[in-house]
Amino acid sequence: MMQEIFIGVPFHENENRKVFSRCVANLSTCLAGLDSDISAQIFFIVNGPETNQRRLRSYGNNDPRIRIMHLPDANRAASVSHFANYINEQGYSPAIFITDADIYREPDCLLKMQEAKGNGTVLVATQHRVYPLDWLKNQVKLSEEEKFWYQVFEGDKDPRILPILETFGFSGLDINKMKIKESLVLVDTNIAIGMHGKYHQASESLISRAIPREKIAIADTWFYHMGRVSLKDHVIARLRHFYSAKIEGFLEEMYQSEILSESPEELNLIAETIVRKVSIEAAEFFLLRCALRNLVARYCIDFVSNNLPYDQSLTFYPSRAITYKDAEAIVNHNLKNLILSKSEQVVAMGNGITQVELPRYAIDPK
Predict the structure, then answer these.
(1) Which of 166, 208, 298, 350: CA 20 to 30 A from 188?
(2) What is the rounded CA–CA span in Å between residue 83 and residue 74?
(3) d(CA 278, CA 23)
(4) What pLDDT is recorded for position 337?
(5) Are the beta carbons of 271 and 287 closer than 8 angstroms?
(6) Which domains, ranges and CATH numbers included, belong to the chain?
(7) How far is the C-alpha of 290 from the C-alpha of 260, rounded, in Å?
(8) What is the C-alpha to C-alpha distance for residues 203 and 219, in angstroms, rounded to an integer?
């Protein structure tokens, strides 16, 4: 008997035809690895300014497996819930795949996710990595500042330093492991309907609280995605999670889950080991990432609590992050100069998308 699999792809209009075509091609490769008695339907749930004005794009689609669903005035979380509701109402499938368009998936990821779904599992997530900078050199034009932030955001995930962080029992490793990224998940349809909370704001921070950990599996597969390149964009994205936490009643818990347990002295000791065993640059990016995590969490909880954003008085602004104090000063200097427009604050509250001015990329893996 032929089985059907239903794939939902929240798709913003910034994700152009090139990304659309690359996504379809990549999904086709993934589907080819499934059993021959499984057919697929792929739903692109499109939102954006043109959709809001009822100007609907077709994306030149002539693939019978694909349906375009236009959803005005919706963010990503609302798109997922709408798709899950539709599948549930039609009685199509007890579980659905949700994926972003602008990621590169391992070719057999869908098969591995199906295999990882046990009896008590309601959601299967995957491992994720950002595209290495070397992959982007000839495909994406980044300024020096964008390259800098791209590396800062991944400063505690450098494969070369992970053994050192594990030796020290670095708390950031546990924080990273606990985060589920909804860019590629297999989830029970009835669970997908309500996992974003009442107001359909941020996704991952609510999912990890809405679903018991023992009912979540992490498949032995992965996807690549474009990392962030802007501090402002990062702050807006984190604010969405903090606003969601405030609405759902766990703001302080959210803050405590974001910050590191290590003291500045302990972080300096880790950095000194990284300098000896890896490089000074790797140690600097590690310290900057640690400072970024702590200070942005403080900024966000103050912001959504209607307090003045966290502001540490600066007595100096170092050019290098040799110690945690240096890294903290560098990050705080940039946060002090961060001004969110009214429209950006609206995005931070869950309406619209982040990285709106940055083109979406379909990267060829090297």
Answers:
(1) 350
(2) 12
(3) 36
(4) 82
(5) yes
(6) 3-141+179-227 (3.90.550.60), 237-348 (no CATH)
(7) 7
(8) 19
Give pairs for 142-151: CB < 8 Å, separation 24+: 142/229, 146/229, 146/230, 147/229, 149/228, 149/229, 149/230, 149/231, 149/234, 150/227, 150/228, 150/229, 151/285
Question: Which residue matches tokens 């509701």?
Answer: 85
Identify which of 268, 242, 219, 264 has the alpha carbon closest to the alpha carbon of residue 30.
219
Between the alpha carbon of residue 272 and those of residues 9, 97, 252, 267, 294, the distances in Å are 44, 43, 32, 9, 20
Q: What is the pLDDT of residue 347?
A: 64
**Strand-pair category, 184-188 with 95-99:** antiparallel
In sequence order, which ranges of the chain are alpha helices (DSSP H)?
Answer: 17-32, 49-52, 76-90, 109-116, 133-136, 144-153, 162-168, 171-178, 189-194, 204-210, 231-248, 251-258, 264-277, 280-304, 324-336, 342-348
What is the DSSP code (8-state) at residue 225?
Answer: E
User: Do residues 314 and 328 make contact, with C-beta atoms less than 8 angstroms apart?
Assistant: no
- Average pLDDT along the chain, 366 residues, taken 10 residues at a time: 85 85 92 84 90 81 90 84 93 94 92 92 93 84 92 94 97 80 93 76 70 92 91 90 86 93 98 98 98 96 79 63 95 86 66 59 66
